[in-house]
Every structure is written in structure tokens, then in C-alpha cells.
Amino acid sequence: MRNLILVFICLFLISCSDREHANPFDPENPDTKGAPTGVSVISNRDSVFLRWNPMEVNDLLYYLVYRMTGEGDLATYDTVNVSERTFLDTTVVFDTKYSYAVQANTVFNKGTLSDTVSIIPGPYNFWIADFYNYSVKRITYDGVHVIKSDYFTSPIAIEADPQRNQFLIADYWNKCIYIIDKNFLELLTIDLEDRPVDIAVNSSKGEFYVLFLEHNQLVTYSISGRKFETINLPFDVSFYTYLTYDSVASNVWISGNGADSVFQFVLENSTSVLKVHSGIVNPGKIYADPITGGCWIASDSGIVRISDSGVRQIYKTNYYIADLSINPKNGDCYYTGYTLENGFWETGYISDQGSVKILGNDYPYLSEIQVVPGEGAQGFIVAQKGTWRIIRFDSTGTEIGELGSFDARLDFALE
Fold first, then answer.
1. How high is the mean pLDDT of the chain?
2. Ranges of H-type helices in 127-187
3. Model-level pTM?
4. Which CB contacts under 8 angstroms, 24+ apart, belong to 386-390?
5. Which pLDDT score is estimated for 240?
6. What is the 3-state composition of the chain as percent helix, strand, coil, each rounded to the nearest 5?
7. CA distance 336 to 5
8. Which CATH number fits the domain 1-121, given the four candidates 1.10.340.30, 2.60.40.10, 2.60.40.3200, 2.40.50.140?
9. Whole-angstrom Cα distance, residue 393 to residue 359?
10. Residue 291, Cβ density class (10 Å: 0-12 exposed, 13-18 middle, ≥19 buried)
11. Between 266 and 358, whose confidence is greater?
């Protein structure tokens, strides 16, 4: 009987101890450590949005938000009412690192500081279509935080329509184009007759161009979904055929993967004139030059630049070029690829002043790249195969952020 009483006493003490540490304000609480949990942060241009889980504590007076600029010290920044669990900071400066923490305060004492979260706000957000992960993600300027994500069956390409502040997503298996706003609200679904492998948008004219896989066609649609023109292509479209729209010269350029040619369609009123640029080894990703017109092509034997009049220049000969991105502010061409001689990877850019190497073989297998628009040298975001992550670099090649859980066949767009 005495032993049974001792057992009951022990169980009572243990249960009391459990109840005591169940208080979310208790620093010994294994879940909260006495601090707000679930603290997260996102940015949208010059605003930073902080969120956390509410604390169910009696006599809670307010939350204190702490902020640190750069590598300084955390300091009290603002007070938030207990009924709120969000905070909007509109006093941030582009390309500056900000760190935040939250603290709960009661009538009697202050709680523990939450985990610190950091962000670098800037003038753009990135959109990423992830074909094999069935998703489209909108991520912050520093490449660290997901603003919003949604499921799509097979998002093979994404393009911004800046004049209407919307995005077009080509869905390969569903044979359609989804038009959504920045909050992923579906505005329109355009059914297609074939599987799209790439799209390009003519925002000023309110139309877009689609490459069809099975029928080997280039088809023009209005943003409202009306089909305008169908062009039968003189080659077989593959899963790795790409196109771009040249707004300077009003051309559509297509890389003829497998045909060793690039096809230029000059759009003239109601007709299209075809020009063929042959002798380009296995052309891949292709991008219009927003400054002078023409296009840049990633190929198995370097970077090829073709002017509107057909003048050809070749850079990085004896390189396999995985991807390119053109800075719309100055026309600099950012690239990632490796040398055919020794397989060493290299990332850099080509400007009127020459070629600049930014990253070396310390960052191999970079399959996609997107430069941040701006004057002079700029930062960029890349996708790395093997680690399946997105890495964000500044203009000097310093890593400033990363985000994981991506797959192959990505496509980037800017907001």
C-alpha cells in the first residue's frame, strides 16, 4: 500500500511539472522556449511583412518587434497589439539586409526573443516554373523566401506580361495556357490543340506565341485567347526547342535544336518572313537583345549573337553553354556553362567592354540563370543540379541566399 501511494505521488508531481512547462511563456517549454513560434518574413519591393504564431498567455500586453540593419545589433523597433500577429515594415532600403525577432510581454515580465529571421528586399521578385515538381513559386528578391506557391500539372514555361501585371504559364500535359495575377488568381485558361514547349509574350501588342511539339508549329494568340496565325515550321520541334520575342525589331526567334539552325520570323503586318541562320551546333536557350534587337543563343560550342540583319558574333568558343540571361537595362549577357576542354564550370557576363568571369568551378552544374535588371554589373539567381537548389548571388559573386527543393527543367520570370 505504501508503495502504491508513492507511485501516485510521483505521477502527480510529474503531471504538475508537465503542466508547468506547458505554459508557452515558460523558457523551459520544449516547443516555444518562451518565445513566439513560426516567425517568418517575406518582402515585396520596399515592404517587409513579418508573421508569427499567437501566444496563448494570460495577461499578455503586447508584442515587441526587434530589428537589425546589416550586421549591427538587434534593437527594439516597434510594438504590436496582442490581437495582431503580423507586422509591416515600410522603412526598408533596397539591397540592405534586415533581421527581425519578436518578443511577447505580459503584465509581469518579458518573454524570450524568438528565432531571428533575415531578408534583403529589392525591386523585383522571381517566379519559377518547376516542371518536374509540378509547381510555380513566387520568391523574394534575395532568393530565400517563398511568397506564394501553387500546384500546376506540368508548367514547362512562364512569361510575364508586364503591361497587364499578369503571368502566362504553359502547361505541357494539360495542353493549355493559364493566365494568373501575382496572387495566383486564375484570370483565364486558354485551351490549346497541341502540347506547348515554350511561349513568348508581346506585351505591347497584347499577344503571345506558342511552340507546338507534335504539329511542329508556331501559333500566335491574343492575350484574350483568340488564335491569329499558324506557321508550319521547317523542322521537328523537340522538348528542348525554345523561342523568344524581339520587341526592338518585331521578330520571333526559334532555336532549332537538332537542326543546327536558328529560325528568324520577321513579323510584317499580316505576313511572316522566314530567315534561317544555319551552322549553329545544337542551339538551346535563346533570348532577345532588348537594346539593339537580334538574339543571343546558348549552344554546344559557345554563345552566338545574331543581329536583326543576320550579322553573327561568337563568344566563349569551345564552351558548352547551359543558359543565358540578358540584362534589359544595358544588354549585358549573363551565362553559365563549362569548357569542353576540361569540363570546368564558369559563370559570368559579356558586355561591350568584354567578358567578365564571376564564378568558377566551385559552383558546378548550374543549369539556369536569371540576371537582376540594372545598370552596370548586377546580381543573379541560378539553379544547381545535384543539390536541386536556387542560389542568389550579388554582382561580385558573393552568395546572399538560397532555397532548396527544386528539380530540373526550370523556367524563370521577373516581377
1. 92
2. none
3. 0.90
4. 390/128, 390/139, 390/143
5. 95
6. 5, 50, 45
7. 74
8. 2.60.40.10
9. 10
10. middle
11. 358
